[in-house]
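fwd from M.: "can u put these together and see what the complex looks like"

so here's what she sent:
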Amino acid sequence: MLTKLRDIVNNVASSSDIKQALNILVRETCLAMETECCSVYIADHDRQKFDLMATQGLNPRARRVSLSFDEGLVGLVGRREEPINLAHASGHTDFKHFPDIGEDIFNAFLGTPIIYRRQVLGVLVVQQRDSRQFDETEESFLVTLAAQLAVVFAHAKAQGFWPNTKGTLLLEGAAASPGVAIAKAWCDVSQPRLDLVFPASCLDIQKERDRLDGALSAAIAEFRRLRKRFDSELNQDTLAIFDLFIHLLNDPMLRKAMNERIQQGDMAEWAVKQTIDAFAERFHNMSDAYLRERANDVKELGQRLLYFLENQDIKQWHFDEPIVLFARELTAAMLAAIPRDRLAGVVAEEGAVNAHAAILARALGIPAVMGVEFSPQLVHRKLVVLDGFKGRLLVEPAEHVLKEYQRLHDEELELQHEVESTFTKQTKTADGERVHIHLNAGLSADTSIAINRGVDGVGLYRTEVPFLMQRSFPSEDDQVKQYRSILDCYPNQPVVMRTLDIGGDKPLPYLKIEEDNPFLGWRGIRFTLDHPDIFLIQVRAMLRASIGRDNLAILLPMISGLSELLEAKALIERAFNEVSEIAKQEQETLKKPKLGIMVEVPSLLYQLDAVAEHIDFLSVGTNDLTQYLLAVDRNNARVADVYDTFHPSVLAVLRQILENSQRLKLPVSVCGEFAGDPIGAVLLVGMGYRQLSMNTRSVAKIKYVLRHIPSDALQHHAKALQKLTLARDIRNASEAFLEAYNLGGLIRVGK
Ligand code: PEP
Ligand code: MG
């Protein structure tokens, strides 16, 4: 049996065409189980249907059979997610008779679900004329076969070799930049690849050094040019990545490392690869998803060096009509090389939603899908629909599907226009209730130029980035410059700066911290209280930056109780006294900043009364609060479905924090991702929160959503959700609520 099993799975897996693979599957399963009929149904979750994709034994015309998920015995197998074994199928209450299918002659039925990572991909069925139950060995054979097929199918699905009823090739990836694009695909797989550079030695060391110098100069010139090219379209934060590239290319350590390898006899390409890999590794080991993605930026840098080692000039593309660009790794240079009106969308095999290219695509408003496995032969020059909301691509879709997407595309343009036209207005609910929208800045580099006209200030400035990007602690003067520039961007609005939230999970390259449980370890305020030198320098820098200004507020991360707050407060007091002296000498004023704490460690919920008299405001960090309340690592993909801010307990805690802060007369804001999610924001405002802080890309959307719903409806909605006890139901009800206001289009899939 085992050999038979392995043969079937191997034959299915080695077939290049999924239809053919399914035909092999049903034929060989019939043979192996010595039964008369085998069929495979594939689930289409969009249509909620099982489609009969291949059969041996049923009428071939029956190939057009589609069963909805709640229909027939096949539907029952899918719903129950377990095998069903019957001697007389037609006697079962769920049996559904299809007149043309030719099933009448079969009595015995054994169906088993094909499940991959909790999702039912299909149902495998064997049938027999004899009225007898399939025995245990047969049942376990089919179950084992289904489990192995699930992996093969999931892989085929990821590569786009997956049938759907529209006869369309479907590719899936991560939704990286929202929007719909409809255009011909253009695959560029010509870029040199770092992963394909292998050890090679050189004879002429000087020649290799010259080649490397030439490539470094060309790359620096290119990044300077790109910075200029995007200058009017992107804000300083986004442009900063080019400065980082230029800085790295000029970095004596990086140059030295490459030159040393050449000196030892390595060819320039191999020297670049080894050095870049070592630099990228540093970022790759960080558990913060955003910082991990910076590893890809370093690789992009390496890629460009490779390019210039082989080419003198920058490639320019000319297209007569808009295209969707497919690339293995998307680079800023590619985005720049194609005129905006010719670039309808972008798709990349490598990288995730926080990759630099994805951030750029978002900032430029180009729909993007990242992490898509594609085969150039199957997509090049074909018409594709790119759905940047759902992270999927349809290649050569049927006419009616195309029309549907065209409609969506037009609606989206209209909506975008409307969203942008109200962007700079104050945020109010439909009945005029004021909501303050603040920006999360610092970590996310995607602030758009006009952003500060549309927000009420900065609700969370994450100060970690300069600490992580450098080779040593940034000096007090460097920090002053950085903080002053952000305070000056928002002259009449509050800027909440959080003290360093660094630790085991975001290790500094120059300060190794090895811990088994980094999220429960030396993080945030725990680290800085143990390093009062670092803390004092940072707070002094913030205070010095705020001399002569009055918009600084200081926020402390990871506070778990009163004692940490008191200790931090004493240090802030000390820094304040010191900087007051400097201000006095400069004959300037130094205003005492407001002090707040993050509510993200659950123990603080029981200390709010005790801390209230020592602080001016609270800021709820739903990202960590969810993590610690549900005991689930926020960065672990394996438990990603357990990490759910819609969990009724998280929502109950959010309600409780608001009630307490109102009782204690403490202003409160929410600054986790939840506040920037349309259904989260609606829920928070409905509960009574009036200050939300979010990433740039959420601002326009959230403002738009809130302007269209009256506050009593929001309140009613939040109250109604209180009765629901399952996260899934809460999410569904929230989506339906937005649909009812015609705002369903703004719900972005993914976080
Ligand atoms: C949070 O925990 O919700 C938060 C805003 O902080 P960070 O994501 O930086 O940990
Ligand atoms: Mg946090």
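replying to her w this: DSSP finds 26 helices and 22 strands in the chain.
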